[in-house]
Amino acid sequence: MKVANVARAGPERVAAPGGRRVTSVLDDSALAHLVGYAASRAAIEMKKVFARHMAPHGLKIAEFSILMLVAGNGDVNQKQLGQALDISPPNMAVTLDRMVERGWIERVRSTRDRRAQHIHLTKAGQAFCDRVRKIAATMEDPALAALSRAERALLIELLRKLVPSASPPPAA
Questions:
Q1: C-alpha span between 104 and 87 (Å, rounded)
Q2: What pTM was computed for the model?
Q3: Left (φ > 0), alpha (ψ -120 to 50) or beta: where does 114 sit?
Q4: Residue 144 gets which letter from DSSP?
Q5: Domain coordinates of the chain in residue numbers?
Q6: How far is CA 4 from CA 9, 89, 101, 125, 151, in A?
Q7: N or C: which terminus of the chain has fewer CB atoms within 10 Å of its end residue's CB?
Q8: Are the C-beta atoms of residues 76 and 118 closer than 8 Å to each other?
Q9: What is the DSSP string of 81-136?
């Protein structure tokens, strides 16, 4: 895998100090055997895809993940969300506060335990969630075009195996 500082149209030669010509593509073969490096590089690209599609909606990755988890789970609380997404309690509280301000979620006191609060989507939050879920359904397709459907499913399965708390993906 080669890492480029510029578009991958081909190695661009640039002048270095002393008049030497060097390419803008770095040899990353010393890192190529590391799963973490490959996963990190892929994550960088996928974050760019996410930003391109969701930033116009004012949505960050953590917020999107929270919306999807709240939509897919009944009575979920702040602690569960923080653990699932590895977000510290103070940062989760700030993120949820921001989402409450935007009208996407609400904190609802539990009827079983008055000390507990559950996170629910508001009506506006549900509509917003439905809208961004449709965008998310296809936003990665161009970036993953080099993979077949089976390869994409296998990639997701293998990555999820690296996360001890990840639940199995739904059957396709």
A1: 19
A2: 0.79
A3: alpha
A4: T
A5: 1-33, 35-140
A6: 10, 37, 40, 40, 25
A7: C
A8: yes
A9: HHHHHT--HHHHHHHHHHHHHTTSEEEEE-SS-TT-EEEEE-HHHHHHHHHHHHHH
Closest CA to 141 of 46, 17, 75: 46
Tokens of 102: 């935007």
Q: Which structure tokens are listed for 137?
A: 């359904």
Residue type present at position 89? P
76: three-class secondary structure by DSSP: strand
Of the candidates 130, 131, 132, 159, which has an alpha carbon nearest to the alpha carbon of residue 144? 159
Quote the tokens at residue 16. 């270095």
Q: Which fold has domain 35-140?
A: Arc Repressor Mutant, subunit A (1.10.10)
pLDDT tens figures, 36-77: 999 999 999 999 999 999 999 999 999 999 999 999 998 899
Structure tokens at 93: 């509280």
Backbone angles phi and psi of 13, in degrees to 5: -90, 135
